[in-house]
Design goal:
Number of strands: 5
Number of helices: 4
Mean pLDDT: 89
Low-confidence stretches: none
Radius of gyration: 16 Å
Number of domains: 1
Shape: elongated
Length: 127
């Protein structure tokens, strides 16, 4: 993903939203049981970061950076925001798209334009 992003005609800033599974407030006993077995739950955003591709060396390094902040997570969703005229978007310029991405996730909207990975860096598809 990093190599493809680096080859784009316009520079991109990558948006990462880290999510953790939580048991919804209103849940059934069956849902609680499944959650206790590591299944089900809702994905809740716990942290977000934006980075230029050159600021990333590997998925493992990114995961370690998040771990150093003491934040647990299970899934990370990634999107990109293109710059213009060869200029990388600033961190401030991606705040709006980051908020849209977070609201889309929270409201159960269409997440098909985001790529998702688990904590091992394996691609996750939602269906």
């Amino acid at each position: 993903m990093l190599e493809v992003t680096r080859q784009e005609p316009e520079p991109k800033r990558l948006l990462f939203i880290f999510l953790d599974a939580v048991l919804p407030e209103e849940h059934t006993p069956e849902e609680a049981f499944l959650f206790s077995q590591g299944q089900g739950g809702q994905l809740q955003p716990v942290m977000h970061i934006s980075k230029a591709p050159d600021e990333l060396t590997s998925f493992e390094a990114l995961a370690e950076e998040v771990a150093q902040k003491g934040q647990s997570w299970q899934i990370v969703m990634v999107a990109g925001v293109s710059g213009e005229n060869g200029k990388l978007p600033t961190a401030e310029e991606v705040e709006g798209p980051m908020q849209v991405m977070e609201h889309t996730i929270l409201r159960g909207g269409d997440i098909s334009s985001y790529i998702s990975f688990d904590t091992d860096g394996e691609h996750v598809q939602f269906g």
